[in-house]
């Protein structure tokens, strides 16, 4: 069975889309090939790296990518899932093609304020929200054939 390609998109590809990609590879990797990208890729967020490491997933070696790289390569996706928060929703890119599009709103860890530990605690919350969204989506797909 050919795995369906899924692209997770956010602004910087530094945290949310990276975490979503890693969770889909972990929870549904036998059925899906997960990718992530941003409209203006930045650096991988160390809060996301640490939060994912805490649940046994190492994303420290991942590089941030641009959605335009995938577009230029002509890569086709079955699903494109934007994970920008509502405030950034208008900046969240639309990826062309026939992919099914979904939008899941998550807070942006790069915008968190406070001490490192406070920001890490908020990033853990986002991590859990993303994991739950992936799990729920996989169940929906199973139930709908």
Element layout with pairings:
Layout: E1 4-10, H1 16-28, E2 32-38, H2 46-53, H3 67-73, E3 79-82, E4 100-103, H4 116-143
Parallel strand pairs: 1-2, 1-3, 3-4
Helix pairs in contact: 1-4, 2-4
Protein traits:
145 residues, alpha/beta, Rossmann fold, four-stranded parallel β-sheet, 4 helices, 39% helix
Please give a structural write-up.
The structure is a single chain. With 145 residues, the chain is of the alpha/beta class. The protein has one domain (4-139): 3-Layer(aba) Sandwich (Rossmann fold). It is built from four helices and four strands. It has helices at 16-28, 46-53, 67-73, 116-143, and strands at 4-10, 32-38, 79-82, 100-103. It has a four-stranded parallel beta sheet, with helices on one face. Helix 1 (16-28) links the parallel strand 1 (4-10) and strand 2. Helix 1 (16-28) packs across helix 4 and helix 2 (46-53) packs across helix 4. The chain starts with a strand and ends with a helix. The model has no long low-confidence stretch (mean pLDDT 90).
**What proportion of the residues is helical, as a percent range?**
25-40%
| Strand percent estimate | 15-25%
Counted by DSSP, the helix tally is 4
Pattern of helices and strands: EHEHHEEH
Largest sheet: 4 strands, parallel
Q: Determine Rg (CA atoms, Å).
A: 14 Å
In the CATH scheme, the class would be Alpha Beta
CATH topology: Rossmann fold
**Mean pLDDT across all residues, rounded?**
90
Which residues form runs of ≥5 with pLDDT under 50?
A: none
Q: Could you say which overall geometry the principal axes of the C-alpha atoms support?
A: globular
CATH superfamily: Response regulator
In the CATH classification, which architecture applies? 3-Layer(aba) Sandwich
